[in-house]
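dude i think i finally got it to work??
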Amino acid sequence: MTGLHEAARAYLRSPFLHQGRSGSGLDCVGLLVLALKDCGRAVDDVTSYGRDPHRGLLEARLVDEFGPAIALDDLQPGDVVAIDFAGAVRHVAIVGDYVHGGVSLIHTDESLGEVIEHRIDAKWARRIKGAWRP
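look at this
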């Protein structure tokens, strides 16, 4: 079976679209939903969220879907992480195995404009506030 990070890579360079759920446009949650579906996992998808979710909502949905969080120092390819943007957890990404060594994030947001993959450096590591293993 394809790993979640490998499924997410199929959407690299797909454009960002808030609440998007197709390769022609998706957001960070849409990327996660499509990658999970491509791995054969049914998900309870919700698109009735705004650009600024209520505090704790994203983490609660991840716990509902995947169970308790795992230790941040145990990240592995295919894990899902919640990321702090401007003081609130409002972003998700999928952990990958970066081709140049180390672990990476596969994600998208409006400022990126498309799905990208990059190494988890110290700045990004500080922004990761929770991790789950689907």
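Residues 4-132 form a domain with the endopeptidase fold (from Nostoc punctiforme) fold (CATH 3.90.1720.10).
im so relieved honestly
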